[in-house]
Amino acid sequence: MVRPLRTLSLVSVATALAFSCFCASTLAQPANDAITVEKLLKSGWLVAGYAAAGGNRAAMILFKHPTETYLVQCLSGYDVTRTPREFVNCYELR
Predict the structure, then answer these.
(1) Of these four, 11, 31, 68, 86, which has the most CB atoms within 10 Å of its CB?
(2) Which are the contacts of 55, defined by CB distance < 8 A and separation ≥ 6?
């Protein structure tokens, strides 16, 4: 039996991941060395874990790469009170 709260959390994470992939190219141009979810996925990084954060409006996504010894963590979400509404913040965990 799937619990409604767990299903809601999974939907929230999936939504945040979809927004972060879609919005990475629509946000203002990041610095050349900025890490985005889109860049990570295109370069072979895999989702190692995720958790809902910020009242189901954001998700923490952990990425791993088979040939790297460090992880990358991203906070991705959607907030209707901000402009731009989508936000992504990724950083390396060394």
Answers:
(1) 86
(2) none
Which residues is 90 bridged to in the sheet?
A: 74
13 vs 34: CA distance, rounded Å:
22
| pTM for the whole structure | 0.64
Strands of the sheet containing 86-93, edge to edge, are: 46-53, 58-64, 71-78, 86-93
Tally of domains within the chain: 1
Please name which of 73, 89, 78, 79 lies closest in space to residue 30, comparing C-alpha atoms: 89
Domain that holds residue 23: 4-93
Q: How confident is the model at residue 33 (pLDDT cuts 50, 70, 90)?
A: confident
